[in-house]
Amino acid sequence: MLSSGSKQRRADHEEKRIVVMLTYIDTYIFPIIVREIEKKELLFIGLSGIATGASWLFYYRALQEGPASVVVPIDKLSILVTIAFSWIVFHEKLTRKSATGVVLITAGTVLMTMI
User: DSSP characters for 21-86?
Assistant: First the structure.
């Protein structure tokens, strides 16, 4: 198990990495994208970026607070949220093959947390 000092250094490193990525995107990528994408699409891209950044921060915070053997399987169940979102918002059909995959992923994740 990592000491609290090690965990803090790792978290600080990740925060610096996020700042560097955001600076690069803001300086080099964003000006190109703004000219070529509609404002509505740009809004969704921005919201997606915010959600992704928040997800990373929450994930690393969870790893600081709890054991990886518990945190990682819970994170992997996010596929269920994605599938539900695509079904509700985009009215995508869930094929038998995909449904079987979802059941197997869920069962495997639950089993991993129990062992």
Answer: HHHHIIIIIHHHHHHHS-HHHHHHHHHHHHHHHHHHHHHHHHHHHS-HHHHHHHHHTHHHHHHHHH
Distance, in Å, from the CA atom of 79 to the CA atom of 85, rounded to the nearest integer, reads: 10
Looking at mean pLDDT, say which of 1-5, 20-24, 46-50, 69-73 comes out highest.
46-50
pTM: 0.55
Q: Residue 10: helix, strand or coil by DSSP?
A: helix
Nearest-angstrom CA–CA distance, 64 and 3: 10
Calpha distance 55→79 (Å, rounded) = 14
Spatial CA neighbour of 111 closest among 76, 61, 65, 64: 76
Whether the pLDDT of residue 112 is over 90: the answer is no
Residues 115, 78: Cα–Cα separation, whole Å: 20
pLDDT of residue 91: 92
The label of the residue with tokens 């921005």 reads 46
Q: How far apart, in whole angstroms, are the C-alpha atoms of residue 44 and residue 28?
A: 19
